Each structure stands twice: as C-alpha cells, then as structure tokens.
Amino acid sequence: MTKPNSIIDRFRQWRSGDSGAQPPHPVDASDSAVTVISQAKQRQIVELRGAIRGLETKPRQGIPWLEADFSDGTGNIKLVWMGRQQIPGIKTGRKLKVSGRLAAAGGQCLLYNPRYELLED
Prior knowledge:
Blueprint: H1 7-15, E1 45-60, E2 63-71, E3 76-82, E4 95-105, E5 108-112, E6 115-118
C-alpha cells in the first residue's frame, strides 16, 4: 500500500486494520494551524497547545463555571466551561490542545467552552 499523505488517509489506513499502519498522531506544534498565545488576536479562531496551570470553580448566578489558567510558555489565557464543576481528565498540569474563538473580558483573554483534546503527559 502507498504511504498515506494526510492525517485522514493515515487514520483510514489505521482504522482499516492494515498491519503496517501507524495510528494518526497529533498535529506537530510547529504546524501552521497551531497559534501561540502571544500572537493570538481577540475574536480570532485559534488552536492552542499548552498546559493547565490552575483550576477554579466559580458560580455565576447559581451556575458553576470551571475556569482553567492555561499557558503555552508565550502567554496565558483563561479557559471557561460554563455549567461545569469538573471535567474528567482536566486537572492542573495536564497538557491540552484547545480551540475556539478568543474573547476578552476584564482585560483578560478567554476561550469560552473550548473544544479540547487531552495530550500525553
């Protein structure tokens, strides 16, 4: 079988049970799709890689909000999951790939209800 070119081709090959196929790997951090926090702009749709530095649950009008301080080494943002007190796998020190539209509130950059992928520690 020819060597697959895209991650989708690699996934299909791996999923089909081809014994020579390797599972698809996460996008390399140097990939152009990944943005660094220091270069992200408000209202931009971003994909970031980094680690959670701290977690806190803050109720807003009786609804819990899980807030995570997230850093990629170039800057910090706050990840906010509305209506959640905890999320399995989300903990201090955990490496993540997150994506969403960057917002700003109170002078701080935020991602509300970001999509996330847990990365290997």
